[in-house]
Amino acid sequence: MDRTAQLTSHVRTRPFVYEPDVTTHSLHVRAARVLEANWTGTSTVPSRSLYPHQWSWDSAFIAIGLRHLSPLRAQTELETLLDAQWGDGRIPHIVFNPSVPLDAYFPSPDFWRSSTAGRAAGAPRTVQTSGIVQPPVHALAAWLVHQADPGLSRARGFLTRVYPHLAAWHRYLLHRRDLGGAGLASVVHPWEQGMDNSPCWDTPLSRITPAPARSFRRADLDHGSPADRPTDLDYGRYVRLATDYRDGEYADGAGEFAVEDPSFNALLIASEHALARIAQELGAPGTARHTRAERLTATLIDRLWDPAEGMFFCRDVRTGRLVPERGVSGLIPLVLPTLPRDVVTALVRTTASKHFGLGGATRLVPSYDLLGEAFDPHRYWRGPAWFNTNWLLERGLRTHGERGRAAALRRAVLHLADTSDFAEYVDPYTGEACGATGFGWTAALSLDLLHSATTHTGSKGGDRE
């Protein structure tokens, strides 16, 4: 019996008992130290060793936690990212630190060539970035950061400055990236969705001819076990897609890979609700944005919901077919406040099912189906549990009144953040730390759960902070 089978046979017969709350003060202090160690002066790196630049959705999650330590730093985090926005509205997934050696991370700035290949799309000239994007958590983060200290936010004109950037970002996604023609945004590279190595990408990726192994050097293997990282074959396909996108001057719609992803679109919808609140704070009507968010929720259900399976699935835009792989992405729409009750009930049931094990077999919700053929408890996004996705699920459960499940998940997240030294991700069965430790969003979201627990109301409307 292999290691995975041994773990499975052991844990499925004995539900996990959540640990008591960790010591709040100790966890707060150590999480703050992680964020201080990863702070560059204007932004926060996810990890000093493995990810030495600024990442887009990492910074959004980090700002959500930083608001409890320093609302000013949280505002600066987002402002630094938005300063690198392209003229067409896209927020790049990496903003490169020019003081970091080129060989410290691949793909490096000389691969993306943003200032030249991205010129037609309005790439900035004063900073080097990647040319792809990441999930749009930014408006939600900006709204939560504002609420942490409204007086400071208003005095600095924080929302006044970031609102046009965020509105342009959403326009880009809702228009340039509506590759399926139904209203949802498509991702054109697995790195854009954030869950890079998910089995949900295997079928659409299989059409891509990989770049030759000799044409790139994987810096990620200098800091992690090859057994835990994407295979060379998959990485070659990632490089091929990125190369073709770059060589096409970052024009959208021409590539072979285009996928409507439930998590990406759910976060866009959640941020659209947040953008409506920001508009209202600035004295403008937010009704149209709330209406758009509700319409997008209906489209998400129409396009990606499978009632028989009780979860959302990715749609391969190039074939028009749903991808029948159960990834945690298909549960993330639980964060949406206007999701119909029958969909909420089915999602909660699936989250607690044998496929994901919430409250039973697993400590945290895994990134992929426990029973799936591609499941691996340690390999990047093919089974390990991640703290940001579990933070989103906790938020969704609480939004829809599942207070007991939300509280139990919160305790589990805090316990494993504590015992794993704020790991990048963990084995969903054992809680063993995987990837980098001292990871930015793990520390930040732990702070948010520590400090926001008493303010969550669990209201259906989603106005919980």
Automatic annotation (TrEMBL):
It comes from the Bacteria. Pfam families: MGH1-like_GH. One of its GO terms (molecular function) is Glc3Man9GlcNAc2 oligosaccharide glucosidase activity. GO terms for biological process: oligosaccharide metabolic process; protein N-linked glycosylation. Keywords: Glycosidase, Hydrolase. Residues 51-442 form the Mannosylglycerate hydrolase MGH1-like glycoside hydrolase domain. Belongs to the glycosyl hydrolase 63 family. This is Mannosylglycerate hydrolase MGH1-like glycoside hydrolase domain-containing protein. It comes from Streptomyces aquilus.
